[in-house]
Amino acid sequence: MSFLSDGVAVVTGAGSGIGRALAQQLATAGSALALADVDQAGLAEPRGCSRRKTHWVTATVLDVADEAGVSAFAEEVSRRHGRVTLLNQQCGCCA
User: Fold this and answer.
1) pLDDT value of position 67
2) How far apart are CA 53 and CA 27, in angstroms?
3) For residue 32, how many other CB atoms are within 10 A of its CB?
4) pLDDT of 32-73, one tens digit each?
5) Contact call for residues 16 and 39 (beta carbons, < 8 A)
6) Nearest Cα residue to 19 out of 56, 45, 55
7) Pairing of strands 8-12, 57-61
8) Separation CA 79–CA 77 (nearest Å)
9) What is the mean pLDDT of the chain?
10) What DSSP string describes the chain?
């Protein structure tokens, strides 16, 4: 369990569905979270819920089809969180 409680998880598609559920579970486990989704309003709930369960949460509006945006997101996560121990990417193509 220390992997999750000491980790930094990046979850794309965190605004709904599987991504949101995963973000909530990781927050419960104590992971720091870097959340991303194309839907800004969708990010509000998991971000608020996660802040109550974990010490560090960032949320970014991001379309994973935008290569430059993904690169900027990766740099921002590195700068703000220092590392990534878990990456989950929801592409939206199967939702």
Assistant:
1) 94
2) 5
3) 24
4) 999 999 999 988 876 666 666 666 889 999 999 999 999 999
5) yes
6) 45
7) unpaired
8) 5
9) 86
10) -HHHHT-EEEEESTTSHHHHHHHHHHHHHT-EEEEEES-HHHHHHHHHHHHHHSS-EEEEE--TT-HHHHHHHHHHHHHHHS--SEEE---SS--
